[in-house]
Amino acid sequence: MVEIAQDDDVAALHAAAWALFYRSHVLPLAESASDRRTAAGLFARCFLGGADAERLPVDLLDEIVNEAGRQAVPSLREAIRTKDRPGVETQLQLWRRIVGACRESHRHRAFLLTNLAAILQVHEVITDSGADCQEIVDLLERAVRATPEESGERPQRLLNLGVARRRRFGHCGDGGELDKAIDCFGKALDSLEADDPRRRDAYVSLGEAIRVKATRMTFSFNELSALEEIRSRSSAAVFHVCELLNTEDLAQKEEIVKLSPELMDPLALRVLDNLIEDAESLGEDAPLAVPLLRMHRGVLEALQGAAPDPDGGNGPFVPPAAAPLWVAEARSLLDQGGVEEAEALLTGAAGQARTDDDPHAEGHAELALHDLVIESIWPAPGSVDRLDRHAAGAEAAFRRARNRDGLVAALGRRIAVAVQLQDGPMTQDAMQRLLVLDPYGGAWWHTFIRAVVSDDADFCRAQLRWCLDNTWRLGQDAAHYGALCERKLAFLDGRAASEQSGLTGELGALVHRIEREGPAAGDDARLAAALERVEVIRSHAFSDAVQHGLSAVYTPAYEALSRCVAAHSTASQAAEAGVDVLERNSSRALLVRMLTTGAGPQSPPSSPESAQLGEQVSAYLNAPTPQHRALLSLAFDKERGRRRHAEREVMRGAASPSSGPAPVSVKGLQTLLQDDDAVLFFGGTGDVCLITPGRCDRVASFTPRTLAREAASLHTKLAGGSPPDDRPQLALLAGLAPRVRTTVAEGSRLIIVPHHGLWQIPLALLGEERLGEVYHVSTVPSLSVLAELLRRPSTARRAVLTGLGDPDGTLPHARAEVEAAGAHYREARIRTADAATPNAYRADAVGADVVHLACHGFYLPEYPDFAGLQLSGTRSTPGMLWYSDILQTPLTASLVVLGACHAGTGEVLSGAEYVGIPGAFLAAGARSVLAPLWAVDDGISFQLLEAFHAEYVRGGSAAVAFRHAQRALATTRPDRTGTAYAFQLFGLP
């Protein structure tokens, strides 16, 4: 009978269940247990199918309810996950029936009650109503009563009940609910073991509830003008109380009291109450003794008599609604590594909230954007300004919404930003506002600021430890600002090299110790775990800003991990292991660009705003004054913001994070190299590694700062026209070049991955016998960029050249340069003068095998992402081919030649991210780029590059053709301008 009963045939299931149940009464006990369990399962299916509880056997009811709950849990979880309203309401009805059938004595009654409360909470969220609050509280209260005192589940259920009561208070404003919530949190804390991780949640919840009680139940206002009046009174009271305390002479104290009516304000007593509380907490470290403070309070209280309460009977702030659902959605995206998707969602939500005039939603969006920056790229360059902007936006929105909790959170963030900016007036203003709203949190911030500005290390350390022990005062922000205190304490204790590293206190201290003492056992595992989430974010980030920011913050951790894995690997594997770690942090933004040109999120096309940059550039070039430089910087910053906004618009439609390109490993690169290829890798840890198809060896070491200093000096010498017979070289090359010569066969391709300062000099010139005379030399930003170049299919040369030159008539030899180059190719599209425009480049470069541009270059070290090539435009506005324009024009060219000053100059920004015009051309699709590293002579460039093309069309490589051109120039025309040595080959040789 059991076998023939179908799941949807409740009557058949019911009959089969009763048959088994009756049979279990006549069988021996050992044999009846199986029938009893099966009967309970069938009765549970009947019950879930709609059968009444009255039709179930009473002495089997506990097992039936237990089995029904077990079978219903998966659908409950799915309804909670999807938040589908019909599904939630179906589950709500089902679990009401299950709980209704559950007897008081059921051993899993608390579990069932908690599940019903959980689905009811979801129902409350999706209906945006507080009607379910009281029922949720009642259910959780019954669940707590049903849980034995000794049960390990009791603390969690107390926490759940406390949270529900706190939410109930938010809806109804009943102070009794808040008191009961505090009691629940306190009991949960008391019942948790010292090492239980749930204690942190209990501390945070308890602190937040106490803070709300101290603020919301103490102050109430009808209008924001009343808040400003109280803030002003509070500020005055603080000033005059401090004046009174700092005066020792009794006669002067009496005079201050007579002349300061502010001391007759009850707010003065509250200021003293806060000082007394803090002094009691600090104990011997308190700057003022508790008896002294109590004496002053007693005197003021006697003088004031029955002073009216400052609240003045005004009404309360509007009770805050729950945060919008998209805040949780953004958090979910961020947890998956989707920083850009989360930012796009929140930015769109903030804009929509402004359109809808919904300051509550706008404040939550701005607050979440602030926290997103903190959790992803802070303290990367520019991140503090973004933090200030979002915190100020949140404060303004919550002020309009009259949302006290949101205003407190925003003011705390503004104070943190003001401390970072060392902005005293901003700090003081925000502190005054916060002290009125949140005395508990205000006292914490007051102590923190005193610690930060103090020159006394011991005093600072004591204040920070008090702050660390009292982060509960900050509610939900406790974890973040606790980590800030840990970071500063690590710096004070010598466990971190810098308090602004952006790494957490523990991670910063670990990195600093490794730098100072070397790796120890277990360090590699700790660092790898810390960088795991960073790698998740980087794998999903298509934005240059995110990649640059993460590199700026975490480069020290990557370098420390490289040292650790190298130290803990065998001698034969150490170099490879160290390089693999460094490569994960090397030019990731450019790698993304290489694989997304024409496909993924990119910089937006030119706009009226970006067109105005050309005017600013023209003004600066015509009159390079500090004023024009400042205006140009402002224009670049504004354009960066516009591009970030456009990127967010592109990412807004993304449903979930998409995965970007992964960095190549040494072994992966080796499979792509030809038999005689070699790669010279200069790592941030100071190691030089030589990679060949079969080996990866450490061949030299250097001090990064020393190398950067020597490279800058050599750059100045060469750019100034150093005689060619000086044979310039770096000290590092004295030992490195012979090692390379013994390993790599003459005539091989030698591809160099430079480190920072080495990007300033033409590396083919280095060595006692120049590397360029022995090998085919080129440079690439990273191993992964090289791997992508090697993966690109090699196409047969089509002898098609696109040349643009002499766009404005100021370069006498530019027209001749591109025309002479075109004469060597079977097909050439040459555009000069007014025809050499950015649009002409976009039209002609696509499909060309060789691209040659002869024009002016534009480059500012602070803004390498706004480097450009000056083509033809209007009289007042040059037609700029910007770095971003180059990235967005897909190429199939085997070679790009740039006869433009500074066109090959690039910078390594934000840790290990290369940015330069050659990189943009490589990302766009070019295999090789020849460009100068400094200003060059127009006439000498013409001769050098004409000789280069003549040799290149004979079928040789770009490196061979360049070597030939340099030799030819040296024999025909002495160069005292440094032009012949300015050019460098990027990409494949």
Number of E strands: 16
What is the straight-line distance between the termini? Answer: 81 Å
Ranges where pLDDT stays below 50 over 5 or more residues in a row are 1-7, 217-227, 306-316, 497-501, 598-609, 653-657
Percent of residues in helices: 55-70%
Count of helical stretches: 40
Strand order of the largest sheet: 7-6-8-12-15-16
* Molecular shape: globular
pLDDT averaged over residues? 80
Biggest beta-sheet profile: 6 strands, mixed
Strand content: 5-15%
Brief overview, please?
By secondary structure, this protein is an alpha/beta fold. Helix content is 59%, strand content 8%. The model is unreliable at 1-7, 217-227, 306-316, 497-501, 598-609 and 653-657 (pLDDT under 50).
